[in-house]
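Problem 12. The chain below contains 659 residues. Write out its predicted structure in token notation.
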Amino acid sequence: MSTVPSDPELTLQRTRVLASWNFERWGPSLALGGLLAYAKVVDDGALAERYDIRPLVSHDDLLAELADDPTPAVVLFSSYIWSAVENLEVAAEVKALSGDHLVIHGGPHVPKYRGDIEEHFRRYDQIDIAAHGEGEITLVELLRVLDPALRPTDALSQVAGITFRDGGRITSTAERSRHESLEDFPSPYLTGEFDHVDSSGWQWPSIETNRGCPYSCSFCDWGSATRSRVRDFPMERVLGELQWLSDHGLPHWMINDANFGIHRRDVEIAKFIVELRRAGGVPEALYMSYAKNTVKYLAEIIKMITEAGIIGEAALALQTRDPETLRAIKRSNIRVEKFDDLAEEFRRYGLPLVTDLIIGLPGQTVESFLTDMQYCVDNDVTPRFFVALNLPNAEFNNPEYQRKFSIVLGDGDVVVETSSFTRSDRDRMMRLRMAYRSFEHFALLRHVFRYLQWDHGIAEATVIERIEAVTAASPERYPLLSWVQGYFDMFLIPPFGWPPFFAEVATFVSEEFGIEDDAVLRTVFEVQMAILPEPNRTFPSTVHLDHDYVTWFEAHGRQRPDGPRLGELPPGELVVTGDPCQCCVTGVGRQCDVRPHELIIAPFWAALHWELDSPVQRIVPAVAVSNSASQQQDPAAGPGGPAADPEGVGATASVDATV
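Solution.
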């Protein structure tokens, strides 16, 4: 909630401009704050003399304000994939209070294609004007030409980048070009646009250091600024905003650039963030979408952030390595070799590397998806699997593009079929996604997979594909394995405990791949059970093994083929030292069911880690940071940290992967 005082005398003389946003879910809107800040100072404050341009308000405060004072007002909304529905609902309530209010919707989720925007206006009569692309100049020009009664004038047709109701017609004007100099736009943080908001509940306040993206990926609509030159905000503004976030003690920050790390100055920005962390303790976590075609600065940036104890990750938008798919989505200009180079750099620094893979891209097949999955295994990269969405302003939504690739959409505008895969194929890819997440990411069978691949030459993707096939066709053959494949995302618990589960897995390995259950395989299963969470476990815990698994694992690290076979090694032991993410306490049990959404918005998909601390654990940001911090504070202390990123970085990251 916010309380914004205004001068009653001035309010009577000027038309109110109100911008509304859901503070409780997302904190103040950077976009709306920027619009208001610019409108107040443009033309030496001329518009601020004509209009009562109010600071950003919550949806509840907006409706209360308009119910108390029905005088016609200009009401602004900024719509993204996560806010569009709510904005439309609030706009309908605004119009119900008085049809004389002028409602303007902007943002990336306002459609631009002609047929879509006409349908949008027919469906939602609560919209008077839609703004396309960058909004600062558009809003200013709109406020200049509106008459005192907020009725469109003839000059409205001269405002570029809008669609409006013109009597009985729906009129769209020429496309607006992007503003060249971002120096003209003041910072809403530094001009006080957010000073009235209680910052204690903010989630992921964001800043921009630049705008634009040089790439033309067909599935993407990053701020409606793809295929454009990258324009920088002044360094003084960027550092000032970061200082503002630090001064207000906000723990989790987001940099909204499409390619952070693309410029040398991004290293300086990262250094400043690290200085703020060391001086004031924040940020605790930082999310960025990294540059996709250069490794020149990224490793240095991530190394600094990690060493400073900031929870973060190197998350790169690989999406796929398949050449046919890359051509279809117009991404072949992003060289996958650069990703390989960066992966090597991160391995050298011992840092975790995360990538995004998308299910549902034109050109994709089940086979190419399995190949991408195997690449992640072979290069020790953690994939996040997103689903392809048809965003209103991406090229995916161009009718000509959809016809070319026979794109079929399902509920929620999810791509369910293209010329390269059927719905049945997509269903298989979604089951493979589930299998990889459960068995590899949550580590239920990670060490079984490593043993089969390293000592027997059976690729992990082959094993996962077999699990998916047999549990789909004959679930009764391996009921516990089938249960995990079907329900583990809803119940993070072992079916009847770990021993019965792994006994059945041993049968599966024997029957499907001809590998008998002997002392070597039992060593692998003992390691598997030791590193998985279970209530009431105590630490440290030592497991004595018939073969030295830790030495074998370290010798084969990062898939080196020249290590010894596990059966050749003498006895050894595995010491499980702790539960870094408190999974034994909070990570086991019933989860919410979000399957109808298919998005990464639940703990199962957002969790960074679900295993215990040991020499063979997967390195992830939460573990790397908590271990580093505990060593700095007390080398003898056990690690601790969140089991999932605060407020779901995985969900936020879907912006990069699906838009």
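Discussion. The chain has 25 helices and 22 strands. Students who got a different answer should revisit the alignment rule from Section 12.3.
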